[in-house]
């Protein structure tokens, strides 16, 4: 029997049923799931299997397990952290270098910008310009500047209207952040970044998909060239899973 043919563990099947029931009930973030006794009866499994299912869902960010008599599983909103964990583990075992992450961003983000120009709401476009202004205000604060730059790209990714793109972008950024690769951008590089992101925001606001895609591609190419020139050893190092 191959790995693809191997039956799923009971705990994983129960986890799937729990998620299906969360959706069927219309549970929202913060809702408490049924007590353990009721879940044992509903899913017809032992306590050990149920708890394994719940621990798996907690690791995936679907629930949080609140201790104590009034505790139990509480519904959460999954984020990119579980995807980042899975991707970084996969990349580590394949000995993939950090260059892989940069290349993936370069391939994805221009198309995200194109879709954002077609789909982004006026409210989110206004947010882009606010972020660009905050970047200008943080030109002398490297950490603050990087924080706003991430917000800019995340807003474009979310504005693309494609949830997979948004999740992938955040996961890729999480991998780079968690690795603490130590890439820094001098003032000149920061100013250039602000200038082109201002142009990207303008192209998106004007629904100029071709221009938005072209500008984002230009920024990604510049990022790749800068990091390759100044951080070649870092990019060649294999991705390592970090908690």
Q: Report the uncertain regions.
A: 1-6
Q: How would you characterize the largest beta sheet?
A: 2 strands, antiparallel
Spatial shape: elongated
CATH topology of the largest domain: Four Helix Bundle (Hemerythrin (Met), subunit A)
Number of helices: 11
Taking the alpha carbons of the first and last residues, their distance comes to 34 Å
**How many separate domains make up the residues?**
2
Hey, roughly how much beta strand do the residues contain?
under 5%
* Physical arrangement of strands within the biggest beta sheet: 1-2
Return the CATH class of the largest domain: Mainly Alpha
Helix content: 55-70%
Order of helices and strands: HHHEEHHHHHHHH
Organism: Nocardia jiangxiensis
Pfam family, one: FCD
Domain HTH gntR-type: 8-78
Keywords: DNA-binding, Transcription, Transcription regulation
